[in-house]
Amino acid sequence: MKQIFKAMAGPTFRADRANQILLAGATLESVLAKDYNIDLTHNAAFELLYTHDGRMLMKQYHELYLQLAERYQLTYILETPTWRANRDWIYRLGYDHKDAAKVNQHAVQFIRETQHGKNCEVIISGSVGPRQNDFDSASAMTSDESALYHSEQIRAFALLDVDIITARAFNESNEAIGVVKACSSVGIPVVIAFKVDNDGNLASGEPLGKAIARVDQGTRLYPTYYTLYCDNLETVQRLIRRERLVHRSGYWNERLHGIQTTAKTSAFDVMSVKGHFPNLNIVGGCGFDFSTLDEMCRQFIAE
After folding, report:
1. What is the per-residue pLDDT across 121-144, written as a single tens digit (0 to 9) for each?
2. How many Å apart are CA 231 and CA 238, to the nearest integer?
């Protein structure tokens, strides 16, 4: 599957992939907390890998999406539960930092087991999270520091031959640039999912469009695409209304291919904003209701 992403890197990606629809899951950690009442320490879903019940819960989570992917013959982005499996968070959870490589290895093995026997294509995505929950200018990394820091996890994924890296809920552009540089150094594709507040800005204060443009300029358009991570679709609607953001960045809405929210939403709400993003081709990410996802798949395919 990796060659698919390599073929669509750079500015030709939008033309090559405009008609292909991908299926993505909702936020695993939010679903486990809200739908299954699972209290994850530091939102570290990877710890569920080490119990039978935890593995079964995560398989149940993915099963819904795999069923939909089979039904509509979509490609499912099957993401590892490793958002917290970098050096700092591993340490906070009581592991030795040397355990990080093993945790990521176990996560990829679990994902490969989950896809086994399914009659649909999958993209195995290595999930990478930010070093800190919140942006702190005093301790923020430079892009080079970020590349060095995140390369440990990214190199582990590259050795395990995942198809793509997803850097989820990043809150400032320097750290995102570092992740992209680390991915570029080992030749693995990467998606940047920026987290924005209710005003549509990153925690660093950067407008979304400016952050996307800055990463693209600093990495020669290396990211395969971007997705938006926010609390609800009202944030997206506010972004749409902020025409000055579009004029400032010029093309940020074209680089956005998916929207992920922590709150559930309806198929109607998603379709209402789809027209503002010409390359929005990722279904899912906004809830865990089967009928809603089924409706969204049908509507995306019908267009």
Report:
1. 999 999 999 999 888 877 889 999
2. 12
